[in-house]
Amino acid sequence: MCAVPIHHPHPAPPYRPLPHPLATIRAGFSGFPSPAEDYVGRTLDLNERLVKRPAATFFMTVSGDSMESFGIHDGDTLVVDRSIDAHPGHIVIALIDGEVIVKRYEMIGRRPYLCSGNSRYAPIPVADLDCQVWGVVRAVIHEFPV
């Protein structure tokens, strides 16, 4: 598909574990477990959870609405791994004709395309464009307004 570049703007931060209870959170109603249940001593570091290869991982902030149906919204933070080879179905960060974009890599027929998650934006055929894949998106961090 596209060549992978070497430089990235935001490296992964150092590890920092935070409290993480063993109890899981139910999305449905099925009782009320004790708030203190299985809380003591367990921690979670989001870098450890989301960053599998620190030397190859960077973060990007999304601007725009083209990926909304894929659960990626304006202002979200993407965890991107440049060591993963892009395959159809992966969400990728790419440089197309000097513009950095986030799209889903798909094959339509036998041709590679970068596709939006919004029907207002047409698939981008990459075969004839200057295209570099910067990495594959491993996770999306979406913050709710408070």
From TrEMBL:
<dbReference type="GO" id="GO:0006355">
    <property type="term" value="P:regulation of DNA-templated transcription"/>
</dbReference>
<protein>
    <submittedName>
        <fullName>UmuD protein</fullName>
    </submittedName>
</protein>
<dbReference type="InterPro" id="IPR050077">
    <property type="entry name" value="LexA_repressor"/>
</dbReference>
<keyword id="KW-0068">Autocatalytic cleavage</keyword>
<keyword id="KW-0378">Hydrolase</keyword>
<dbReference type="InterPro" id="IPR006197">
    <property type="entry name" value="Peptidase_S24_LexA"/>
</dbReference>
<dbReference type="GO" id="GO:0003677">
    <property type="term" value="F:DNA binding"/>
</dbReference>
<keyword id="KW-0742">SOS response</keyword>
<dbReference type="GO" id="GO:0006281">
    <property type="term" value="P:DNA repair"/>
</dbReference>
<dbReference type="Pfam" id="PF00717">
    <property type="entry name" value="Peptidase_S24"/>
</dbReference>
<dbReference type="GO" id="GO:0016787">
    <property type="term" value="F:hydrolase activity"/>
</dbReference>
<keyword id="KW-0234">DNA repair</keyword>
<dbReference type="InterPro" id="IPR036286">
    <property type="entry name" value="LexA/Signal_pep-like_sf"/>
</dbReference>
<keyword id="KW-0227">DNA damage</keyword>
<comment type="similarity">
    <text>Belongs to the peptidase S24 family.</text>
</comment>
<dbReference type="InterPro" id="IPR015927">
    <property type="entry name" value="Peptidase_S24_S26A/B/C"/>
</dbReference>
<dbReference type="InterPro" id="IPR039418">
    <property type="entry name" value="LexA-like"/>
</dbReference>
<dbReference type="GO" id="GO:0009432">
    <property type="term" value="P:SOS response"/>
</dbReference>
<feature type="domain" description="Peptidase S24/S26A/S26B/S26C">
    <location>
        <begin position="31"/>
        <end position="137"/>
    </location>
</feature>
